[in-house]
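Same chain as my last thread, 239 residues:
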Amino acid sequence: MSRRHKAMGALDVVLDYVRAEIKVIEERDPAIHNPWEVFLYPSFWAILFYRIAHRFYEKKNYFIARAISQFARNRTGIEIHPGAQIGTGFFIDHGSGVVIGETTIIGNNVTLYQGVTLGGTGKEHGKRHPTLKDNVMVSVGAKVLGSFTIGENSKIGAGSVVLDEVPPNCTVVGVPGRIVRYHNCHIPRETMNQIDLPDPVKDDINVLKHADSEITNQLLELKDELKYLKKSLEEKKAE
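reply #2:
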């Protein structure tokens, strides 16, 4: 194959990526009004450079792969290790501060928001970063740390720290992350909803308030009973 044909093939790959990314951003970001705006998105360039760097990584050209990765990080504020495996339809909204580790595996149609970390715990060797299945959404500032799987269609709430396996179709919130909803009825990328999540802390507070109210009522009842007994004893003494 001639150099010209190779160059044309590489250009076709880039154009396919551009078309696909425009479609993804238009689907998930209501702020875009013109397809040309996609070229202003840091995530667009970060993912494009990742795709290029990943090809070099697969060919064991590690220095070139990392050089491209570091260039992208410096330009976009998004750090994607070239060794990560990322499927189609990947979208990073805003993106500043996103970190994706070397052995991360990301399925199709996954969405990340700014400040997300897909990292390791510093203890493992080999596969040490998380696996995100199809249609997962990780909200602002969430941290997913360790070599385990986030099941398809699951949603990680803003600011959560996830350290354990998450089954499919679940919602996780809190530090450390807790599963607070099973069998979500919506695919996260269809709603892009980071707000309407269960609040387990609020639920626990409400339970404590209810328990406190019951104890207070019981104490008032006991107090009334003691008054009645005291009055009865006084009446008997008077007789």
